[in-house]
Specification:
There is one protein chain. By secondary structure, the protein is mostly helical. It has one domain. 49% of the residues lie in helices and 0% in strands. The longest helix has 19 residues. The protein starts with a helix and ends in a 25-residue tail after the last helix. The model has no long low-confidence stretch (mean pLDDT 89).
Length: 59
């Protein structure tokens, strides 16, 4: 497989994934959870800007 063929397959996979995610808000959320950007509870992961336990101030 040449680099051009590999790159074409990667772009096709990205396009396919994007089309699946753009179907609805529910589908987009499912993709983000599957990719590890959001937790199963729908919270943004710390690595992507979500709150961390260290940021919490005890009451």
């Amino acid at each position: 497989m040449t680099h051009a063929q590999r790159n074409r397959r990667i772009l096709e996979a990205i396009t396919e994934q994007t089309e699946e995610a753009m179907v609805s808000k529910k589908a987009a959320r499912a993709v983000l959870i599957k990719e590890g950007i959001y937790t199963a509870k729908g919270k943004l992961r710390v690595e992507f800007g979500g709150p961390s336990k260290k940021d919490r101030v005890p009451a």
